[in-house]
Amino acid sequence: MKKWRSFVLVLACWTLVATAPTLAGHGGKDDKGPAILLVTFGTTVPQARAAFDAIEKRVKTAFPEVPVRWAYTSSVVRKKLAGQGVSLDSPEMALARLMDEGHSRIAVQSLHMMTGIEFHELHVNAMKFGEMRGGPKKIAVGMPLLSSDADLELVADTLMTLLPSERKPEEAVVLMGHGSHHPSDAVFSAMMYKFQKRDPNVFVGTVEGHPDVEDIKGQLLAKGIKKAYLVPFMSVAGDHATNDLAGDEPDSWKSLLTAAGVACVPVLKGMAEYDAIADIWVAHLKETMNSAR
Ligand code: CO
Question: Which of 103, 112, 178, 240 is catalytic?
């Protein structure tokens, strides 16, 4: 009888031990439910962070019950901010915290413009968190702004309604994308094609990819354009917008185009600051939330 009782006791303990980790990680009483992780390159320009506040507001309106966290993919930006006493997580740090807190479903939303290097790294690493023991039951990564032909069409249509209202048709709009040596750099040429079907005087160049500023300058001069509105085609109007686009240094786009006889009017507002554009990222997040169920 005594032997039988201890056998039952051992069996009960073994069952507890064997099932406890599963319960903790997968919908048990410690399950903190869904969470949203917004991931951006980041910015060191304080006023540029207005773009992040704007998009966070729209995300919280769409998902009032779900906690929202941030991560910056740029280690350079994170280190610079850390030096100023501002602490920001990498995506991996943020995911580790969410995992530790017990969130069973995580929607990671990329706030990048296109599916470049940063997005691919984010995607690969986020998927690994989904494979971990005791990790989230479901994790999904939402696509950047320009991820399909439908996105490109929608962004072109939307931006056409947001161009400076004082602009005359013979004046140009020059959008500055970041650009990359990654193949997804081609999206900027594709965007120029989309825009020019709608308005032949809208141009898209990049700082670090193609088309570059020399390409754009040549096209403006060939068309005899005398004035251009310079608009960052990035989520925030950060360092590239203030310096490379609109700065007073001789190699900024403003200086190069002005020297070529094109009067320049910079419009320093990040894409995430335009509600109608931010809502395209939010629409991607809604899809991500659905697939993180
Ligand atoms: Co850059």
Answer: 178
